[in-house]
Amino acid sequence: MLAVRYHEHGGPEVLQCEEVETPRPEENEVLIRIEAAGVNYADTVRRNGDYYPVPTVFPAIPGGEIVGSIEALGAGVDHLEIGTKVFALINQGGYAQYAAAPARGIIPVPEGLDPVPGLALIVQGLTAALVLKDSAALGAGESILIQGAAGGVGILSVQLAKIYGARTVIAAASTPEKRELALRMGADLAVDYTRPDWHQQVLDATDGRGVHIVQAMTGGNIFQESFECLAKFGRMIVYGFASREPGTLNPERLLPSNHTIRGFFLGDYFSRKPDLINATLAELADYVSDGRLRIHMGGAFPLSGVGEAHRLLEGRRTQGKLVILPWQDD
C-alpha cells in the first residue's frame, strides 16, 4: 500500500510517500480501507518533534483520525461487520491507504452523515463540543472568546456556542477573510488578534466586564492578552499552542477574580469517557442533519500533497477541515 512516512523530526520536507506493507489486524483490531484521513495540528506538532503526550515511533506514519470501511477483522472481534463504514482514532498511521485500529474505539458512521466531511466531527467537532460543555461548562447567556475562530475547531465552536445558548460569541482571527467566515457562521463580533488593541475591543463589547470563557489555542502573547479579557469567575480552556510559543502567567493573578485555567486533551476522553464521546458524536451528527451545524471543508489532498497541507496549516492559511484522500491520484 501507499503511505506517507517520516524517519526523523523536521519540517514538511521530511514527509515522504512510500510503498509499505499493508498492516494485518491483530487480536481485537480491525483493518480499515481508508477513505479519508483528517489533517490536524497535532500531526504537525508530532512531525516537528514538539511536545506531545504520546511518543512518536519511527518510521512514523502521521494521522490519527480516519474514516473508511472495515476490510478485515482480527481475532476476538465479533461485534463488527466487514464493509461497515466507520470512524476511528488511532495513535498514528492514518496517512495511508489502510490502517489497523483497535476495535473498541471504532465508531460506526451515523446514518445519513456524509463520511468525508463528517470526519470533521471526530477530532475538531468533539474537541469543540467537549471544551464548551464539559471543560468550560458553558451556561446559557454567557459570553465566550474563541481563538482561531476560522480553523477546524474554531468554526465549529462558534456555531456550537450559539446552539448551547451563549449570548455573545466573539471570534478572534488573523485575516479579514477568516473573520468574515466566523461572522457568517454566527459570531456576534470578530476581532483581529494581531492588532495591539484587540483585547480592548473584547472588553468594550462586554461593557468592560470581560468574557466568561476563553477558548485558547494560540499561546505566546495571545495567551496573556486573552487572560486580560476574562470576567470575574471566568474560565480559560487551553487545548493547543499553535504559535509554539509558551504562555506564562503568575498564578497569583488567578486569585483576585476567581479565574480558572484548565487544559484539554481529547485522547483521554476516548479511553476514560467513551459513553460521553458516543453521546456527543450522535448529538453533533443530529445538528448536521437538521442544518444547525455546518461543516466547512478547507481542502482535500492526495498522499503526495501532505507536505503542502502541513505547510498551509502551520502557516495558518487554512479555513475549516483539511483531509487526505489516499486513493486520489496527483
SSE map:
Blueprint lengths: L1 E4 L10 E4 L9 E11 L1 H8 L16 E9 L11 E5 L8 E5 L4 E2 L6 H4 L4 H13 L7 E4 L5 H12 L4 E6 L2 H9 L4 E4 L5 H8 L5 E6 L3 H8 L2 E9 L21 E4 L2 H7 L1 H16 L7 E5 L4 H9 L6 E4 L6
Parallel strand pairs: 8-9, 8-11, 9-10, 11-12, 12-13, 14-15
Antiparallel strand pairs: 1-2, 3-4, 3-6, 3-15, 4-5, 5-7
Helix pairs in contact: 3-4, 3-9
List keywords for this structure.
six-stranded parallel β-sheet, Quinone Oxidoreductase, Chain A, domain 1, Rossmann fold, seven-stranded mixed β-sheet, 2 domains, alpha/beta, single chain, about 325 residues, 10 helices
Query: Any idea how many domains?
Result: 2
What sort of overall outline do the alpha carbons produce when their principal axes are compared?
globular
Arithmetic mean pLDDT: 94
State the helical fraction.
25-40%
Number of helices: 10
- The CATH class of the largest domain is identified as Alpha Beta
Distance between the termini: 16 Å
Percent strand: 15-25%
